[in-house]
Structures are given as C-alpha cells and as structure tokens.
Amino acid sequence: MRHQVRFGLGAAAALLVVAGLPVPAHADEVRDDQWMLNALGIEQAHKETRGAGVTIGIVDSGVDATHPDLKGNVEAGQASWEGGKDGLKDTMGHGTAMASILVGHGHGDGGEDGVLGIAPEAKVKSVSIYPSSDPRDDPRGSHDRMVEGIRWLADEGVDVISVSQGGAGSDALEEAVKYAVEEKGIPLVASAGNTAGGPTGDVVVQAPAVYDNVFSATGTTKQGKFWDGSVEGTSPDDVTVAAPAEDVVHAWNDRGYDDNSGTSDSAAIVAGTIALMKAQWPDMSRETIEWRLTETADEKGKDGPDTKYGFGIVNPAEALTAHVDPPDGVSDEEINPEPNPKASASPSPSKDDGALTASDSGAGPVVWIVVAVVAILAAAVVSFILIRRRRQPPAA
C-alpha cells in the first residue's frame, strides 16, 4: 500500500514563515485532496453539528497534539509504556493520522488549510499502545496494552472508542470490548483489516472488529466500490458499514501530512460519524445509534447486509437528518428524537488555529533580511531532508 509523506508548507516557505516574512500564496493541496469530504457530504453534516462536547477515545500509537490541525482538540490520556507522555507521544504517526480524520480542524484563516476531520469540534483522548515505530517488535505487549487501553477509556466515560487496529484477538480482548460496549454502553468502532496490511496481511475480519456489537468497518474506493485491499466478512454479521479507505489524506507527525490507504481510515470515519450523532443526541443509546447508522447507509450490495459493505457506505448527513422507521417494538421518538439545541454547528474558526507563525519579537528590518537570507540558503538543504518516504504503519 502506498504511504506518501506530504508537507503543508514547502521547506523554504516554512522557514520564511518562522522568520516572520510573507510567504507566496499557494493552493492548499491537502484540503483539495480530501476527496472523502465531498463523497460523504461532510459540509452538509456540519450544518447540523461539528461534534462539540463529544470525546472520542482513540487506541493507537499516540497523538501529536502540537500539529496545527489538531491543536486544542487532543486530551492527554494514557501511555501503557514508559516515555509515552500520557498518549501524547506518537511513535509511528498512525495515531496522529487517525486523530486528524476524527477531529482535525485545519488551520489558517477560517481553518481552510490542512486536514478537516469528520467531527472537528470534538476531542480525542489518546491511549498509546506502541512503544516503538514497529508493532512487530512486541506484538504480545501491544495486544495486552490494547486490552488495558479499552478498559481505561471505558472507565473514563468517553462517548465513542475508535480502534484502527486488529489482530487474532483473545478472551481478554473480547472481555474488554464487552465491558466497554455492553456494561458501559459505549459505541466501539474497529477496522475490519487489510489484505495487504500488517506483518502478514489479513484474510478475515480481525479482532476486535469481529466481536459482537462492535461497529466493524470495511473500505471503499474513490468510486464508491469495494476497496480490494480490504478484507470482507465470512458472513454479513462480520461487517457493519463501509467507508472510504483509498488515498485518504491525513495529518502526520512533525506538522506533516501523508496519504494512505487502509481500513484504519474507514474505522476513523465511522467513529467520527458516531461522534456527530452523540453531539446531536447525547443520550442516544448504542443500539439506537447502530439502527440509525445502518438504516441511513448507502446500500451498495444486495438487499440487506452483505459481506463486503455490510449495510452500505456510511452517510453522515443522513444519519443526522433522516427520519428513520423504527424497528418493531421501538417508538418513533426513540429513533428520531429532537436534536440537542447545543449541537447546532458553530461557525468555522476565523483565527489561525495554531498554524506556523512568527512570534512578535520586534526585530528590525535588517535583522529580518539577514534571517531571510539564512533561511533561504538553509531551505535548499532542508528540502532534501524532508522529501522522503516513511515506512508504512500497519493499518488494521
């Protein structure tokens, strides 16, 4: 799978901004390349709510809370290994990428640059389970830390749990999922798995996605077809919904960006959609959320759920606005409650929101000219350092 690192500002431009000198205007390729926003109707969904008041627990490699597109939207959580900085040290970049899909708010004037997430006014609480850049270094330990992390987030009372990971599973992992989902009533979303991802590639839906009452997400392409890198279920019960997985753009460590393909992205998109639903209806049960989410999905396969798409491709705007027929024995008011008045979408931010800017040091023009010359010369070297390919993080 392709995994290409991008940078929102060129090396020379970044140094010039830090130096306090103007940067030539440029199109923001990051936002332009977020094809999933149009495909999912996110602009329409954000007219209803942008996720304010919701906390999403994320079990991953940690999150870089200093990224301009995430600043202010990341809460310290837990690192199950020494040196993890309460989940705010990202060893791989994968956790930062998933967080940006969930709660990225962009940066710059009006937040129009960088990555826009599904629920840009929600928060993520990070649990870091990888002590190195390669989970194969300690697969058993990472599994145990996932178990601990899910239980810890459940006790913290987060609104949604997003797990863009997967593996063979265990009794301990299944019990942790049951604790979060059944005892605490927290929706938990997990990636189904990638046929070409991870150490060996997956062939069936992975744990925890395969467990009962977990929202299991498979992947789709830009054309809305089943992504051939995604596993499919052995039965329709293995898959809840599908979501974009191909060439998804996200934030990366050290203020960078990348694009990647994987059902990790699909799971984050579904979790972000549920976060919007929890903002719209804070008291809505997990069961009702599942009913609305599946009933409003865009059906792609045969009638009813299937092994590739589940109930269809997730549709955030419809999940928030459609009048859904209730199942037998359930009232219309339970499935279609009045929205939370506080969920109404607030305007996009008009300030810079943490992008790279110069501090007001009061230096004179001669100083700035000297700094500019040094910056330009340094940029020629730095650009060669920055333009490189990172190794693929495993996306379950």
Automatic annotation (TrEMBL):
It comes from Stackebrandtia nassauensis (strain DSM 44728 / CIP 108903 / NRRL B-16338 / NBRC 102104 / LLR-40K-21). Residues 322-358 are annotated as: Disordered. This is Peptidase S8 and S53 subtilisin kexin sedolisin. The keyword DNA-binding does not apply. It comes from the Bacteria. Belongs to the peptidase S8 family. PROSITE patterns: SUBTILASE (PS51892), SUBTILASE_ASP (PS00136). Residues 51-312 form the Peptidase S8/S53 domain. InterPro entries: Peptidase_S8/S53_dom, Peptidase_S8/S53_dom_sf, Peptidase_S8/S53_subtilisin, Peptidase_S8_Asp-AS, Peptidase_S8_subtilisin-rel. The chain crosses the membrane at residues 366-387. It holds the Pfam family Peptidase_S8. Residues 1-27 form the signal peptide. GO terms for biological process: proteolysis. One of its GO terms (molecular function) is serine-type endopeptidase activity. The keyword Protease applies. The active site is at D60 (charge relay system), H94 (charge relay system), S264 (charge relay system). Keywords: Hydrolase, Membrane, Protease, Serine protease, Signal, Transmembrane, Transmembrane helix.
